Amino acid sequence: MIKTEVDAVIYCGDFCAPFSAEILGRVERPIYACLGNNDEDQIGIHSKLGSNATWFNLSQEYGTAELDNRTVAFCHYPRLAELLAKTGEYDAVFHGHNHIAKSEYVGSSLLLNPGAVCGIQFGKPGKASFAYYDTIKNSSQIVFLEDDK
C-alpha cells in the first residue's frame, strides 16, 4: 500500500461522470482540476467536487497554481502542455488526455502526464497510474498501481 502524504491534488481531466468527481472530492486537500474531452455533465461534476476544488471548464485553456514556491500549470491536452512548458514560465506543467504516463523536462520545466488512474488506454485496459510531484526537487515519480504490492 502506498503511504505518502500529499499537500494537494492536480487532476487533468476525463472525470467522465459526476461519481468520479465525488470520489476525488473526498480528498481533504486542495484540488486543482480541469475537465477533459470526455466530461459532458460539467454542472454535475462541478457540484460533486466540493469546496476544496479550484476547478475550470474545458473552455478555459489551462489553470495555474503556486505550490511551495513553484509555479505550475495544468491542462488536459498534451500539445498545449508542451507549449506552456516551452515558455519557461512554469516549473512544472501537468496534462492528461492520452492516458500515457510520461515525465520529461522541456528546458527547465517538468512536463508530466500521470497517466490514467482508471487504467484505460486507447479504449482498452492498460496500466493504471498516477504521479507524485516533488516541489523541492521539481521532479516526479510515476506509480503504476499493479506494481504496488
Describe the protein's architecture and organization.
The chain is of the alpha/beta class and 149 residues long. The protein has a single domain, classed as Metallo-dependent phosphatases (Purple Acid Phosphatase, chain A, domain 2, 4-Layer Sandwich), CATH 3.60.21.10. It contains three helices and twelve strands; from the N terminus they run βαβαβββαβββββββ. It has helices spanning 18-25, 42-49, 78-86; strands at 9-11, 31-34, 53-56, 63-67, 70-74, 92-94, 102-106, 109-113, 120-121, 124-125, 129-134, 139-144. Strands 4-5-6-8-7 form a five-stranded mixed beta sheet, with helices on one face. Strands 1-2-3 form a three-stranded parallel beta sheet, with no helix packed on it. Helix 1 (18-25) runs parallel beside helix 2. It is globular and about 35 Å long. The N and C termini lie close together (7 Å).
Provide the fold topology.
Blueprint (H helix, E strand, L loop, with lengths): L8 E3 L6 H8 L5 E4 L7 H8 L3 E4 L6 E5 L2 E5 L3 H9 L5 E3 L7 E5 L2 E5 L6 E2 L2 E2 L3 E6 L4 E6 L5
Parallel strand pairs: 1-2, 2-3, 5-6, 6-8
Antiparallel strand pairs: 4-5, 7-8, 9-10, 11-12
